Amino acid sequence: CETCKQAVPGDCPVVYADRAGYSRQWHPACFVCCRCSEPLVDLIYFWKSGAAWCGRHYCESLRPRCAGCDEIIFSEDYQQAEGMAWHKKHFACLECETLLTGKPFALDNASLLCTTC
Prior knowledge:
Elements: E1 46-48, E2 51-53, H1 55-62, E3 78-81, E4 84-87, E5 105-108, E6 111-114
Domain LIM zinc-binding: 1-63, 64-117
InterPro entries: Pk/Esn/Tes (IPR047120), Znf_LIM (IPR001781)
GO cellular component, one term: nucleus
């Protein structure tokens, strides 16, 4: 098994990942996302940089995720602050919904607030 390095008995089911090549195999419980360890045996998986990824983390490896709506940001026009990203329309005060692009704001656990609120 590629993950646990234990032998796989001949009567045990194994997972082969086509994108990894058929020389590699896993116990079904060992075929997990390299980021979150979610079991992938019954899910669509992605293969990148020699590892299996769940859909959520594979997409996050390519594009940022909006801290406001939790969706992937496909636009090149988005707002970034303190290592997080927002769609322009979601970069707004949590209380009064004023758009904050170009304005002072406070950030508390991914919650944005304008200076008034």
